[in-house]
Design brief:
Elements lengths: L15 E4 L3 E4 L10 E9 L7 E5 L7 E4 L4 E11 L16 E5 L5 E9 L8 E8 L3 E11 L7 E7 L2 E6 L8 E10 L4 E5 L4 E2 L28
Length: 231
Amino acid sequence: GSGWRPEANELDNDRIRMSRSRRFDLDYDLNDANQGVHRVEVWYTQDGGKSWQHLGDDDDRRSPYRVEVSQDGVFGFRMVVQATAGFFAQPPISGDTADVWVHVDALPPSVRLTDARFGGGPDWGTLHFSWESHDESPAERPVTLLFSERPDGPWRKLVEGQPGQGAYSWRPDQSMPPRFYVRAEAKDRVGNVSSHTWPEPIQSHRLQPRARIREVRPVEQGSLFGTPELR
């Protein structure tokens, strides 16, 4: 998205709402229950209240008022009620605050497994993962790693609560199937989720220690005591 964005600590403000849809309803109350109300105007700002634009009027003067925005961002909204008789209500001006702020984030985060490799030497039997994810409003520790016998799931959690970019080492146990797939999922503050599955299955036999006979050395006859015999 584009436009003004508040500082991170401002996102915890009670008046800020999160929406993963670019279409949402504004619920509002009229003090006099529509009596003597001529017009309900809806105004909005995209720059933190520096400038305001008239979005439209709620023709039936009844909550809610539906809004649809064309892009992600943080939008402030303010209602101005014009009475049938009496003083003219002034529209908001630069510096006025909003009744409510809506942080719209309809785009899911990007996430990609960058490596899934086997350890070697003293690290044999370990599978190493690395990944990266990006989002303008990520959740705290947004990444979960999962595995499945099939590329389309069902998926089981391997570990969750990982940072947006990082690495993880895993030593599978004997219960793992002969081959399995791994996936990284990332989520943002609003609940959008995206995932990336490593294209090749992991062959679990490659995670097991193994030995290979490399030579045969004859042993003198007098040294065979205590040696197993083939029968």
